[in-house]
Model the fold of this input.
Amino acid sequence: MSRPKIGLALSSGVGRGWAHIGVLQALDELGLEIDVIAGTSIGALVGGLYLADHMDTLETWARSLNRMRIMRYLDLSVAQGGIFAGKRLARLLTENVGHLAIEHLPKPFTAVATELDTGHEIWLRHGPLVESLQASYALPGVFPPVELDNQRLVDGALVNPVPVSVCRVMGARLVIAVNLNADMLGKGSRRGKRKPREEGGRFLEQLFGRGDDPGLFDVMATALNILQDRLGRSRLAGDPPDVTIAPRVGHIGLLEFDRADELIKEGREAVERSRPFLEEALAVLQN
Done:
């Protein structure tokens, strides 16, 4: 018998999403061939670039980030429905990916977004990859909505944080979910000891916080965290994956994009912990 079609659902998770890089690397090393990928928010970004064969570039960039470098990619523009316009990040993506369309990726891919006007869950399976990824990670209040096909789209984490259901519809018989929200609630939002002030310090503190003092982004991201946790539990209870890979990332702040080394390592270790369950699930479906 031929092996079952395998789907990979990559969850939202803001800065913790770099763990997806380690997960994908480890799955490749196991020789586990993924047939379809669905991603939400940062999961869509990593999954899309993986299929576009730009994982090495993404990993190098993620590992290079610190707070000041992050700020260089954020262009202030409060007049467009978000604190940042997002054009610098979009330009960076386009420089690497070009104008690649989703349908030209080597395997089926779906980015999950939310239609702002209706609250509907939108599956982006065709059209420009970069704009689709932008829509999927357009955190309300931070980035403006992305207009695609006469729809105003924002972060897919508002409707489907762990897109297992999307993989099922894409024909996957075995669905592996990478859930970055499994140990999130109540963790990682407190930063511990107050850090020395950095260059551009006061402005950065207002956005990111300092020590135990939350910044604007801390409050917004923690609110999204609560939504993801509650909604994710509900949706996974109704449509559970066959295997869950759950990186232990709750101790890392939602906005700590500068901890890629640790996150990628934990993603790889999470796959190793899940290896017996992956092998068992494949054996059951192939019998």
